[in-house]
Amino acid sequence: MLRSISRTTFSMAVSAQKQTAVRALSASAISNDRARSKAFGAIRSSGNSRDMMDITNLEDFQFDDSSTIGYDRMEAQREVRKYLRITKYELPKLKAFVKPFQAPTNTQILRFRTTTYLGESNHPAGPKVVMTVDTKSLPLTNVELHKFLLLVGSRYNPVNNEIKMSCEKFQDRSQNFKWLSDTLDKLINEAKKEPETVSDVPLDLRHAARSIKPKVRFPKEWNRPVANKTA
To answer: Per UniProt, which keywords does this protein have (predicted)?
Structure first.
């Protein structure tokens, strides 16, 4: 019982101290505001006050400073000089990262293409990755390759014998790279599972009908007979 009474008394004392502090702060703020208003009133009454937003109170231009257009031109010159300094002092440092060109090996069969839009870091098509691979470079037999082409469907281009796939599911471009590589591995593994079961299924190449143009040759039988000049 005594403990509860002592806790209640202590909490009441703390709340009273808080109220006293708040009242003191509010009183000081009010007094400061009154002092400031009196000071501004004295300045206005003396006639020395000027409204800086009023254009009639602006001083006449004495041609002792640059104009707004001049400052804009100086800012443009600073930006040009900035990139000139980068070109002269920073770009030569890139020579340390130069690597000789190495042709892709037989194991590097994948070709990736990406597009970077200058000035648009958040372009919606920026993360898109396009992958192409030659069907002759795949580690598949003829029967397995036939099943693989059935699986990829319209992604197969019979003109140049390439598979073309794209991915833009993820915001990070590296994730799209990984998804395409993993998907190709899954297709190859699936093509190796009992490929003989679909060996008699023909390929559907209707998507490439416009690209596949048959070579029409004029029949020899339709040629005009050559007149015998010796007769």
So the answer is: Ribonucleoprotein, Ribosomal protein
